[in-house]
Design brief:
This protein is an alpha/beta fold and 506 residues long. It contains 18 helices and 12 strands. The strands form 3 sheets. It has a 5-stranded parallel β-sheet, sandwiched between helices. A 5-stranded parallel β-sheet has the order 10-9-6-11-12, with helices on both faces. Helix 4 runs parallel beside helix 7. The chain starts with a helix and ends in a 9-residue tail after the last strand.
């Protein structure tokens, strides 16, 4: 099928769905902030997209969940026991080694890599396979009995990374949520499966996971180490302070450890953008054996960064994803989660004038997919002239699920702020385009001025959000398709990452 035919099909279905078409099945029960209603309370839910649920979990959009939805037990089981889990782990660990090998490793032994243990270096899959792959509520007594058997196998791809780092002269630091009474069995288990040496093994005492791990990483740095990398399966392993040069999120849809700092449900993510260009196909060359689904996982979790184009081998995969129903399902899961979060804030229809929601525009509220479908879905190098010509046509489409969220927020009297990387000369066409597809009102439309030209997106957007807060606005939510929309400072009470595997903004 030609790209033109694919674009025509996409436009028809997207426009139809934006105005009430039933082309895409609705998810009847959405995922709730505190305890998901999508089966995790013990009731199967028809229409749940388990792949979308996993996307929401892995990108930290869906938080504070207690169990895997019952309707997703089989899906998670097949994922964890199948080849895709191994491929995803391989992609992230491979990217981690590319990062490490790009650095000048200190010869005096001051460079360190921080590893979590459970589901990062050791696998508890034998235990979880006997306990519903996370669909059964966590039982601390039973899990600790499993830990004390010392039978956890190594995660093969993490063990490979560990061995490569040791060969480079990098010091290994394990920081785990396991407790001091489990030190002996943990040391024996690590050595039994191939982790033979480390600089320190830090076990937990008190505090939340983020506070504890931040404090321990701070001690490592105060002892003179440079943390060049930080690997974990939980966002609570990677958030907070002293996170190192880069973080790497390994897949784990079986359980969630609360990531909470200083009373905030979603702490500030430190700006961890590194000037490394991934070698896993992101330069545009064909890479033998690349798993496109794993590549997208790495991109969406910000483990693969600063890429210029999608791998050539993944053009068809990304095209089918963007034009198919999974992209819509993923977007729906995140937007539904965003609104369920808003409902927990108990905003009245007479909400205070200072309550605001920040939206990015491109691939967040407006879709440029007709343009990208004509340019290889991101496999071609970005051409600013060509893209700006498209912008000035004013024909970008509404992203249906984002438009629904926008309308719900407006009805709750939440102020809308659009914060975009588009420039001031595009103001008129952007305003017209937004209104033409249903975004009829907003409080502010902030475009990139000359004083921010050439500066990183995260710096520009942080500065604009800081101004909003100085003006008295309370940012209750912040939504974007790029991590640069969500990183930095003044990010708001919660952030929501929409899917976009077509391009990367540093």
């Amino acid at each position: 099928m030609s790209r033109i035919m694919l674009v025509s099909l996409f436009v028809a279905t997207l426009v139809a769905s934006a105005y009430g078409s039933s082309y895409y099945p609705l998810i009847t029960n959405e995922i709730h902030l505190i305890r998901p209603k999508s089966g995790s309370g013990g009731t199967p839910v028809n229409g749940l997209s388990c792949l979308s649920w996993r996307f929401g979990v892995e990108t930290n959009n869906i938080i504070n969940w207690k169990t895997v939805p019952l309707s997703c037990e089989d899906y998670i089981g097949h994922y964890m026991l199948g080849s895709q889990y191994r491929k995803d782990s391989k992609t992230i660990n491979k990217e981690a080694f590319f990062h490490a090998s790009s650095l000048n490793i200190s010869k005096n032994g001051n460079d360190a890599w921080v590893f979590d243990i459970d589901e990062t270096t050791l696998s508890n899959l034998p235990y979880y396979a006997e306990n519903g792959f996370g669909a059964v509520p966590y039982n601390a007594t039973k899990f600790n009995e499993w830990v004390f058997t010392g039978n956890a196998p190594a995660l093969p791809e993490s063990l490979k990374l560990y061995n490569k780092l040791v060969n480079l002269g990098v010091k290994i630091v394990f920081i785990t949520g396991r407790t001091e009474d489990q030190r002996d069995v943990t040391e024996a288990n690590l050595k039994a499966v191939g982790y033979n040496t480390w600089d320190r093994l830090v076990l937990k005492h008190g505090k939340t996971a983020v506070e504890y791990k931040s404090a321990q990483r701070k001690k490592v740095e105060e002892d003179g180490y440079r943390i060049i990398g930080n690997s974990g399966d939980q966002w609570s392993d990677l958030l907070g302070t002293n996170i190192g040069l880069r973080t790497f999120k390994l897949p784990d849809p079986m359980y969630y450890i609360v990531a909470k700092v200083k009373g905030s449900d979603f702490p500030v993510i430190s700006n961890q953008i590194h000037l490394l260009r991934p070698q896993s196909g992101s330069g545009g060359g064909h890479v033998k054996g690349v798993s496109c689904l794993s590549w997208r996982y790495g991109v969406e979790t910000n483990s693969i960064i600063n890429w210029k184009t999608i791998p050539v081998a993944c053009e068809d995969y990304v095209g089918h994803y963007m034009l198919g129903d999974q992209y819509r399902k993923d977007s729906k899961a995140i937007n539904d989660e965003a609104f369920l979060y808003v409902k927990t804030l108990n905003l009245s229809k007479n909400a205070a004038n200072d309550v605001v929601w920040v939206f990015d525009i491109d691939e967040t509220t407006l879709s440029n997919l007709p343009y990208y479908a004509q340019h290889g879905f991101g496999v071609e190098r970005f051409n600013a002239t060509s893209f700006n010509e498209w912008v000035f046509t004013g024909k970008a489409l509404a992203l249906p699920e984002s438009l629904k969220l926008y309308k719900k927020l407006v009805r709750l009297k939440v102020k809308i702020v659009f914060l975009t990387g588009r420039t001031e000369d595009q103001r008129t066409v952007t305003e017209t385009n937004l209104r033409s597809v249903g975004y009829n009102s907003w409080d502010k439309l902030l475009l990139k001025g000359k004083n921010f030209v050439g500066k990183p997106a995260a710096e520009y957007k942080s500065a604009q959000r800081k101004i909003l807060e100085k003006e008295g606005y309370k940012i209750i939510g912040n939504m974007g398709d790029q991590w640069s929309d969500l990183l930095g400072t003044n990010i708001g009470l919660r952030t929501f990452k929409l899917p976009d595997p077509m391009y990367y903004i540093s």
